[in-house]
Design a protein that fits this description.
Strand order of the largest sheet of chain B: 1-2
CATH topology of chain A: TIM Barrel
Largest sheet of chain B: 2 strands, antiparallel
Shape of chain A: globular
Structural class of chain B: alpha+beta
Helix content of chain B: 25-40%
Order of helices and strands of chain B: EEHH
Strand content of chain A: 15-25%
Shape of chain B: flat
Order of helices and strands of chain A: EHHEEHEHEHEHEHHEHEHE
Number of helices of chain A: 10
Oligomer: heterodimer
Bound molecules: iron/sulfur cluster
Radius of gyration of chain B: 14 Å
Number of domains of chain A: 1
Largest sheet of chain A: 9 strands, mixed
Number of strands of chain B: 2
Structural class of chain A: alpha/beta
CATH class of chain A: Alpha Beta
């Protein structure tokens, strides 16, 4: 058997209050023009970065200072056409930016996700040329991911601005962005592909060193569902079906009925998984079956 | 886990990467699956629906796909 694996507010600069160009109605406002304007706003916002749920408020223009350890410039650790994502999105030209605001010990791309200095400097024009070539060869979508792309929102918006207007764009996110980031993203991406990893804050704190996870993720998912097409992903983790998947499934059934859900069972004991006894192996058949039973029992709209 | 590689945006065709984990029970986990590698896996295991579904609609180009 072969499985596809996976994984606000200040008294200073507050761009979301006054300067963010309005939502894109594609007919009246060109997406590229809107993205270009918003990229400038997003870059200025790095002076007091509150792009993700951590709300550090640090000056990233002066260098890495926040919990993500990212400065102002993005690096790329992978950019290629892939077919491992949702069937309706593939083939996708996936652009992975180094750096992330979470510290998931089981991260399958732990090196470049935890270290924004990995990868190569992003050169916009050659990268966009490769994306366009992939689209011409049959790629259906362009996906911007990480690490976590929210950390590099200015660069992500610059990529959007440079892509053809009709490109189907996927925002692959950990759903831990801030209201400011959401506002800057509003109307630009066709699909939000969002992780809902942990069903409770204790597991989130222990495995990803993130406080207040559940509230922030739910806020993002509810927003994304109202502002674009939303696909929610959950990676089944060994030993976390009852504490993480069950509450996630219950909440999705109650609050986002009908939303597309991709339940991924190809857990890969990568990176620092060894630090947690339950994460040293893969998902057992019994646990996998239980996860699927929970999904079906809640009537979730499961997709592959 | 991911091997650090020099990804030059100046190059028109940087190396593509797929990662594979083969478990003792024969299960194969795949990450960053490229069309080319999906084609290879499909040939190795023609009965696998999960891989077949990833190349079925794109069979025309998965052999020559490179970027
Ligand atoms: S992106 Fe998040 S973690 Fe990084 S500096 Fe900004 S608020 Fe902090």
């Amino acid at each position: 058997m072969i499985e596809v694996a996976s994984n606000e507010q200040s008294v200073g600069f507050r761009p979301h209050e006054a300067r963010i160009p309005p939502r894109c109605g594609r007919k009246s406002t060109l997406r590229s023009a809107l993205a270009r304007e918003r990229a400038k706003v997003a870059r200025a916002a790095l002076a007091q970065c509150r792009l993700c749920g951590h709300q550090c408020g640090v000056d990233r223009l002066a260098g890495p200072a926040g919990l993500c350890h990212a400065g102002a410039e993005a690096r790329v650790f992978s950019a290629q056409t892939e077919v491992s994502d949702e069937l309706e999105l593939i083939p996708t030209f996936a652009i992975a930016l180094s750096g992330c605001d979470l510290r998931c010990d089981f991260c399958i791309t732990g090196g470049p996700s935890w270290n924004p200095r990995e990868g190569a400097p992003l050169r916009l024009n050659p990268l966009v040329e490769r994306a366009v070539a992939a689209l011409q060869k049959g790629a259906r979508t362009v996906m911007i991911l990480g690490g976590e792309p929210t950390v590099h929102l200015p660069t992500a918006l610059e990529i959007v601005a440079a892509l053809p207007e009709d490109t189907k764009l996927v925002w692959k996110t950990n759903a831990h962005g801030s209201a400011q980031a959401r506002e800057l993203l509003d109307g630009l991406f066709d699909v939000w592909l969002a992780d809902y990893k942990f069903g409770n804050d204790a597991c989130a704190r222990r495995l990803a060193k993130v406080p207040d996870y559940v509230r922030v993720v739910r806020e993002n998912l509810l927003w994304a569902n109202g502002h674009s097409e939303l696909i929610v992903r959950h990676l089944v983790m060994p030993g976390h079906v009852g504490c993480c998947w069950r509450p996630v499934a219950e909440w999705l059934a109650a609050e986002l009925p009908g939303v597309k859900v991709n339940l991924r069972s190809g857990f890969w004991p990568a990176w620092h998984s060894f630090k947690h006894s339950e994460l040293r192996g893969t998902v057992s058949r019994i646990e996998g079956d239980r996860a699927w039973q929970i999904a079906r029992g809640h009537g979730l709209n499961l997709i592959e | 886990m991911k091997k650090q590689r020099e990804l030059s945006n100046d190059s028109p065709a940087p190396a593509l990467t797929t990662e594979v984990l083969i478990l003792p029970d024969g299960q194969i986990l795949v990450h960053n699956l490229t069309p080319t590698f999906a084609g290879l896996l499909a040939r190795l295991n023609p009965g696998c629906e999960q891989i077949a579904s990833r190349i079925t609609h794109h069979a025309a180009f998965h052999h020559e796909f490179s970027d």
